[in-house]
Amino acid sequence: MSLQFKIAVLFFVTFFSFAGQPLARNHSDSGQKVIEASGVLEEIFSIPEQSIPPTLLRNAHAIVVIPGLIKAGFIIGGRYGSGLMMVRDKEGAWHYPVMVTLTGASIGWQIGVQSTDIILVFKNLKSINAIEKGKFTLGADASVAAGPVGRHAEASTDIQFRSEIYSYSRSRGLFAGIALEGAALLIDQDATWALYSRPAYDILHKTELKQIPMAAKQFRQVVLKYVQ
């Protein structure tokens, strides 16, 4: 076994051991993540020509925002990030966001660490129901494609938006579609409880909620401003 391979395996095990550990959660940590996610959306949506097509947003059933996803690699690579998922129910009402994590691995020549903002747009509730039941893998449990960019993108790219999920990334100021097959999305029950003092199920299924944190209200307002 080569030294490079041993180092790569050690990196892989160390990275995912850290990423998979339940971190100490508190209201401040979760609230800060919500604020960061709101900032990501505001910055991206502020330039329609370089943003998500309006048609896709108007027909979305969920939006996931992962600010500052960490991608690191040494031959074997890994990515880990936490963020929010906001869901629109079958009646058309958008609920407050729950906290989620996104993890994944890749093999191939790669070295270094990179921070990337991720946005996922879901076209139907079937995928959301699957996420509620446990870990959900992009590309395996639902089709995922790099999303088109720009208000006029539907005129030239996949006009029917046939994929179930569209994925985007922003790195070093560049916003573009990205392939995320194999990444696992999971509801973070602890972080959601830290934010609301109630389970994720309540947030996903109830609209009449009291004592909602201001950061969560503001995130919802940002989403509603661009999806309606």
UniProtKB/TrEMBL annotation:
InterPro entries: SH3_domain_YSC84-like (IPR051702), Ysc84_actin-binding (IPR007461). CDD domains: SYLF. This is Lipid-binding SYLF domain-containing protein. Residues 103-223 form the Ysc84 actin-binding domain. It holds the Pfam family Ysc84. One of its GO terms (molecular function) is phosphatidylinositol binding.
